[in-house]
Amino acid sequence: MRPIIDIDHVSKRYGSGTVALKEVSLQIEEGEILALLGPNGAGKTTLISIICGLVVPSGGTVRVGGHDIRTDWRAARKLIGLVPQEIALEPFETVIDCVRFTRGLYGEPPDDAYIEQLLRSLALWDKRDAKTRELSGGMKRRVLIAKALSHRPKVLFLDEPTAGVDVTLRREMWQVVRELRAEGVTIILTTHYLEEAEDMADRIGVINRGELLLVRSKDALMGEFGKKHLTISLYEPLAALPADLAGRGLVLSADGRELGYDYDTRAERTGIAHLLAELAERGLAVRDVSTKQSSLEEIFMSLVEEETA
Amino acid sequence: MNWRSARAVFGHEMARFFRTVWQSLASPVLSTVLYFVVFGAAIGGRIQAVEGVPYGAFIVPGLMMLTVLQQSVANASFGIYFPKFSGTIYEILVAPTGWIEVTLGFVGAAAAKAVMIALVILATSFWFTGVHIAHPFWMLAFLLLTAVAFSLLGFIIGLWAKNFEQLQIVPMMVITPLVFLGGAFYSASMLPPFWEGVAKLNPVLYLISGFRWSFFGFADVPVGLSLGAVALMILVCMGAIRWIFLTGWRLRE
Q1: Of the candidates B19, B87, B93, which has its C-beta nearest A53's C-beta?
Q2: What average pLDDT does the segment B107-114 reach?
Q3: Are residues A71 and A163 in the same domain?
Q4: Contacts of A84 in chain B (CB under 8 A)
Q5: Which of A12, A13, A105, A108 best tests the B interface by mutation, with the highest count of B CBs <10 A?
Q6: Which residue, A67, B110, B196, B210, shows the most beta carbons closer than 10 Å to its own?
Q7: A120 to chain B nearest CA, in Å?
Q8: A58 to chain B: nearest residue by CA?
Q9: Structural domain for A257, as ranges
Q10: How many distinct structural domains can be found in chain A?
Q11: Chain B residues with CB inside 8 Å of A149's CB?
């Protein structure tokens, strides 16, 4: 299947000499949610700004739905909706006029039935006649989403959609994004909330210092880079770790009731079976065993640190 | 060419005007009334008629031009600068909308507002002086073309400006002096020959002269030259705007 977005060796050097992107290539499939992760200044916003037409690339090509963003920009841009990082709305305009304006800007005929459906789905219908300056931060963000969806785009870019919003609202936004995906909209979001990517994305791309370090399905990434932590609860507390078990990476908890063990899920032998057998040989009765997968945050940090080093 | 986008921008800009329609009208009407009271009634009575036209009536085209020029530049420059300032310009830049549609929308709205205000001023002038319009069609044509030309100039100023100071400086330092020196309140023929020659280097003189001709049937320069001047200005400004949008100067990084 042809990707809906095809980014080929795109680079960007700003006038100041700053290199924001270095030969980035990436294909995005229709209907997926891709999260672009990276620290501040990594190049996430530059990449989506290039695709949307806000920044002119220094090199490389981008195709959206098969249309080149420079030579066939009208067709390419018709497919795109952008929710910018900063909240930018005309303060004295009403919500519904704001959304109608964007639809008109994209050359679409008025469609009040669709606008109503859109505003209802974003819980904005009751606020349709309110001026945007009267809205809360969360509502303003939803207005930006409504504007971005007003022309029924196939691809939606969400640049840090939940930056600076509280937890409840963040969860609300995620719900909106999931519903959009269910309707077949391809979603590309940039974030540095790893929880967000972990919760929503199908694939994750990690950008740092203008380079796309990797793109993997979330599950593959977790599997490939994920470490697991094994916790063994003991019936009887230990005063100290037996000498012959030291040097295996085991850590005894302060109360002596738990043994902790980190292992790599990719390793051929995790050593767990052997370890449990050895504990049994020493007569250490095991009450419970639990494992915990390392979070995306830990994976991300290790990737970025690896690259920086 | 996407007419719906141009119409959307035009409607959006006009809606902003109508949200504050009384403030938009009150200020230019009040200042024009003051001009009529001071120059028309108080001083005008002591100034002899110009080419047979009482001074109070003679200044009507000049006052209308002064307003059209100031309003066109201010409306168009603010119209495009405000989205740049507030950040909402992004949606114009990411939309499948070309420079022609964007320019038509912003400049069309700025010119429409300026023309409406000028017509209100014309209506106001009937209270103070008897004005006869010799060529109503050409009066409207000059009014419209001048509004478009200076709205295009204002649009360029708004695209160029990086802050509110820059937005103000060109109208204050360039447009107002050119209008005053372009014969808004006098005929160039009233100047000594040397200064008449200098005045004719001022492009605004051609606009005011043509406009005054449409009212009274006499002009400082041939009417064809006035039309040529306004057409040339429109073409040069359109070329500059096209260049700005195609290169992304001060719009795209």
Answers
A1: B93
A2: 97
A3: yes
A4: 87, 90
A5: A105
A6: B110
A7: 22
A8: B253
A9: 227-293
A10: 2
A11: none
The answer on A13 and A131 residing in a single domain is yes
What was the pLDDT predicted at A266?
Answer: 65
Segment B227-242 shows an average pLDDT of: 95
Residue A263: the pLDDT is 81
pTM: 0.85
Is the complex ipTM higher than 0.85?
yes
d(CA B122, CA A13): 54
The CATH number of residue A239's host domain is 3.30.70
Comparison of pLDDT for B44 and A69, the residue scoring more? A69
**Do A163 and A255 fall into the same domain?**
no
Which mean pLDDT values do the consecutive 10-residue runs of chain A (309 residues) have? 91 91 95 90 92 95 96 96 93 95 96 95 93 91 94 94 75 84 92 79 91 89 76 90 80 90 75 84 88 74 71
| CB A78, CB A27: distance < 8 Å | no
Residue A44 lies in a domain: yes
Q: What's the DSSP call for residue B53?
A: B
Please answer whether residues A157 and A48 qualify as being in contact, where contact means their C-beta atoms are separated by less than 8 angstroms: yes
Domain boundary (A172, A193, A223) is at: A223
Length of chain B: 253
Using CB atoms, which residue from A74, A88, A108 is nearest to B88? Answer: A88
User: Which residues of chain B make contact with A107, given a CB cutoff of 8 A?
Assistant: 2, 4-5, 96-97
Q: Are A25 and A10 in contact (CB under 8 A)?
A: yes
What pLDDT does residue A167 have?
77
Q: Which residue among A73, A105, A109 places its CB closest to the CB of B91?
A: A105
A249 and A274 assigned to the same domain:
yes
Q: Pick from B9, B11, B95: which is nearest to A77 by CB? A: B95
What whole-number distance in Å separates Cα of residue A79 and Cα of residue A151? 9
Q: Are residues A214 and A276 in the same domain?
A: no
Interface residues from chain A to B (CB-CB < 8 Å): 14-15, 49, 52-56, 73-78, 80, 82, 84, 86, 88-93, 97, 101-109, 147
DSSP H stretches of helix in chain A: 44-52, 73-78, 95-105, 112-121, 137-149, 167-182, 194-200, 218-225, 272-281, 296-308
**A82, A158: one domain:** yes
Distances (CA, A) of A210 to A20, A25, A33, A42, A187: 5, 11, 21, 6, 21
Backbone angles phi, psi at A272, to 5 degrees: -70, -45
Task: Tell whether A30 is covered by a domain.
Answer: yes
In this structure, the answer to whether residues A248 and A149 fall within a common structural domain is no
Q: How many angstroms separate the CA of residue A259 from the nearest CA in chain B?
A: 55
Helix (H, G, I), strand (E, B) or coil at B134: coil
A300 found inside a domain: no
Together in a domain, A40 and A132: yes
Q: Cβ of A108 and B4 within 8 Å?
A: yes
Confidence of residue B21 (pLDDT cuts 50, 70, 90): confident
A307 inside domain: no
Q: What does the pLDDT average to over B148-166?
A: 95
Residue A226, pLDDT score: 67
